[in-house]
Amino acid sequence: EPRVIAVRVGQKVDILNSDPLFHNVRTVTTQNENFNVGMAQKNDRITKIFNKPDIVLQTKCDVHPWMSGYIAVVEHPFFGVTGDSGEFAIRELPAGNYTLELWHETLGTQSKEVSLKENETMNMEFAFKKQ
User: Fold this and answer.
1) Rounded to whole angstroms, how far apart are CA atoms 84 and 87?
2) Contacts of 39 (CB under 8 A, 6+ apart)
């Protein structure tokens, strides 16, 4: 937990085995170096750093195939992950023109061009649909 996280390029990511079962953590990525690490005991921990942007790399446990998660690796501090309500906020974004891109593990991506003025707060709605 959590199932989806977002981090900056070069940021440390701690991965923890939180139960007493053997797990492995394997990444599926095209931009960063893949790894496959066994974690045999409760509280085993590894720390990884991703050096390239990657939207979005998958982490898997081959021992328990239903266990997976996703890591978005970005070069800038302007990102967010939705909470249980599906809401997110990107704070302190400078005025300018941007492409806001949203990703969902089964429903794909959506993007929208936005123009933000100085000191402006913007509310937007996105709706993902099954294809």
Assistant:
1) 8
2) 15, 17, 22, 23, 24, 25, 46
